[in-house]
Design goal:
Oligomer: heterodimer
Keywords (chain A): Cell membrane, Membrane, Transmembrane, Transmembrane helix, Transport
Shape of chain B: elongated
Organism (chain B): Thalassovita mediterranea
Structural class of chain B: alpha+beta
Number of helices of chain A: 8
Strand content of chain A: under 5%
Largest sheet of chain B: 4 strands, antiparallel
Keywords (chain B): Membrane, Signal, Transmembrane, Transmembrane helix
Protein name (chain B): Nickel uptake substrate-specific transmembrane region
CATH superfamily of the largest domain in chain B: Immunoglobulins
CATH architecture of chain A: Orthogonal Bundle
Number of domains of chain B: 2
CATH architecture of the largest domain in chain B: Sandwich
Subcellular location (chain A): Cell membrane
Helix content of chain A: 55-70%
Distance between the termini of chain B: 27 Å
Largest sheet of chain A: 2 strands, antiparallel
Amino acid sequence: MHIVDGALSNPVVIGGAVAAVGGIAMGLRNLPLERIPAAGVLSASFFVASLIHVPIGPSSVHLILNGLAGLVLGWAAFPALFVGLLLQAVFFGFGGLTVLGVNAVNIALPAVLVGLAFRPMVARGSPMQGAIWGGIGGGLAIAATTLAVALSLALTGDEFLLAAKLVFFAHIPVMVIEALLTGAAVMLARRVKPELFINTPAGGLS
Amino acid sequence: MIRTRVLILTLATALMAPLPALAHKVISSVFPSGDAIEGEVGFSNGDMAVDLQIDVFNEAGEKLGEARTDADGFFIYTPTTPVTHIFRGDLGAGHVAEMTMPADEVADIMGVAAEATPTVAPTADTSATGLSQDAEAEIAKMLRRELRPLRQEITALKNETNLQSILGGIGYIVGLFGFGFYIAARRQIGEQK
């Protein structure tokens, strides 16, 4: 999921960096005081989740949890995931510093989109219904991320369909696991803290 | 508070799940092997890159040649010019392996001085050891074979993620968001005054 240094052409790297700066600025503006601890915890979850590897056939893939971050934080998921990515690059060499922008956009943009699209559904109805919508959102976030990764590779020269298929199919198990995990997390949150997903003037999110 | 507790629970679940130390990362290295350059490419989880095309470039980016990895992820390339060699392998899906061997090492392999033309014949300087050239070549080959697992282990060790860096990373995140919280709180207090 993390694209490494040297795999992308310069225009893609620069474009990604510019988009990431925009996203972070947007996210910080939409991060109220009350949400900062939540953003920190989700950032840490994302940071750790990437270290949990699920062996799939000859390869292994890892969890991302960007859907959950998007559902809880909305636009604020952008800076939260960026911090996680930055530290992963520094500590473990996942991805790299030059491609940080592209990776941030690839992972955080789907999170934000899923958050904006599914948040009303997640907040509505019974906790079970919310959990199902949350699960769909969690799976979709991963699917969108694989497409974004494939697109970044395609812009550099890889054939899009081939790259997309490769990344997408490798991550189908992750989509399933993330859907279940996000669903369970939403269910729990809806039971014990229903207002987490509801826009309030104090903890309001766009 | 409950919200925070829920999120901490999520984090704890993530932490408690089995934590394999290996990351999905490309590892690669090149080293001299007799009169050739040997290299290996693989993922840090132990999977080697099988039958992968390795393109060889010089510093200016001109292609010098290519090699293919065998079933164990190893490839051999015999240099023809004593310049810096850059080996590049595209493993697909954003994974690229790049290895560099500096000019003097390449020259050493070829038995010529760096920048010199490769027409100079390698000097046979084996008299000091009292061994025939054959015996020396045999010993060198044996040593390489013996050292290979060691080298792989060192590479794996270098790429291992340990608990300290994980905890360190989490500490950084806590600190960073704590700082953000401080700034935001200050601003809010300033507005209230």
